[in-house]
Design a protein that fits this description.
By secondary structure, this protein is mainly alpha-helical. Helix content is 66%, strand content 6%. It has three domains: 83 residues, Multidrug-efflux Transporter Regulator, Chain: A, Domain 2 (Orthogonal Bundle); 50 residues; 73 residues. The N terminus is likely disordered.
Amino acid sequence: MATETEESALTVDELAARAGVTVRTVRFYSTKGLLPPPVIGPRRVGQYSQEHLARLALIEELQHQGMTLSAIERHLQQLPPGLSAHDLAIHRAVVASWAPEAAQDVTREELERRAGRSLDEEELDQLAAMGVITRTADSLRVDPGLLRLGVQLLDVPIAHEAILAARTVLLEHSRAAAHELSALLRAAVGEDESVAAVKSLSAHMQPLVVQALLTSFQRSLKEELREWLKES
């Protein structure tokens, strides 16, 4: 029987198709050190993982926000080692929260290609309830920054209502944190600074704040789980 790793392994062509980039782009990112090398499988064929796919999505999001490849390389080097595909997807979702809404109209076939799996009507309803997609008369409107995380949540073995409640908690707290951070940034630049100065400070602060949020949340969640397990 194939292991879970073998079943989820992707060739470079499959990885490129799932990520919506060219094979040439994948290889270019690898030579730049933005992607770790693949595992060499049977017949010397490179095998890529879900972590590679999640890292490509994160690179795409960082580019969308205007970061250069050099800046992206530095940003990736600052991430904690050993992040899973799920960790990278959360990191990307946090990064995407800094950017304006960028929903795209896609066909169901394109949505399933990006999701990497077929989606039944119930799953589409769940993605819509999470705000990942919006159904229109002729197509589906998808938020690319949330798609992979939303698809992963479809397989989480807890009630859908609990996932939606968790989403509400995260949104409320992230908005509160963003509001307080914005106030700190305004105080830091002062009333007389130009719009260009504010944008420059924001661009420098974004990767640092995202890293801090990811690290502090992971540690806080581990502490909560430890306390929970002690009580049970």
